[in-house]
Amino acid sequence: MTAPADGGVAKRLRSWWLTPQRRGTRLLIIPLEYRHLRAFGTIRLAFGVVAAAAGAICLAYSAFGWGAFFLAVAVLDIACGYWYLTIIRSPER
User: Fold this and answer.
1) The model's pTM
2) What is the DSSP string of 46-77?
3) Cβ within 8 Å of residue 38, ≥6 positions away
């Protein structure tokens, strides 16, 4: 029987996560999202617009709790998507 190798995928991913090649607040971004910032930024902006529309519809039907929830999600998604797209445009990336 052979022993499992110590250099498995989980160990490499864990070591990469602990010592990424990024600085500052960019450490908050999930590595998969950081590799595809433009795609995830665009997706977050699109979902933010959809959530804002859902919030507006909920407010139109007097569901104020759900409307506030969807509008809060929309604000967070749009802000995060804008941040991702701003990181792409920065020269130090």
Assistant:
1) 0.72
2) HHHHHHHHHHHHHHHTT-HHHHHHHHHHHHHH
3) 84, 85, 88
| Position 80 in a domain | yes
Instruction: Please check whether residue 47 lies inside any domain of the structure.
Output: yes
User: Which residue range(s) make up the domain with 43?
Assistant: 29-89
Amino acid at the residue 87: I
Domain count, the chain: 1
> For the chain, first and last CA: distance in Å?
46
84 in a structural domain:
yes
Q: What are the tens digits of pLDDT across the range 35-68?
A: 889 999 999 999 999 999 999 999 999 999 999 9
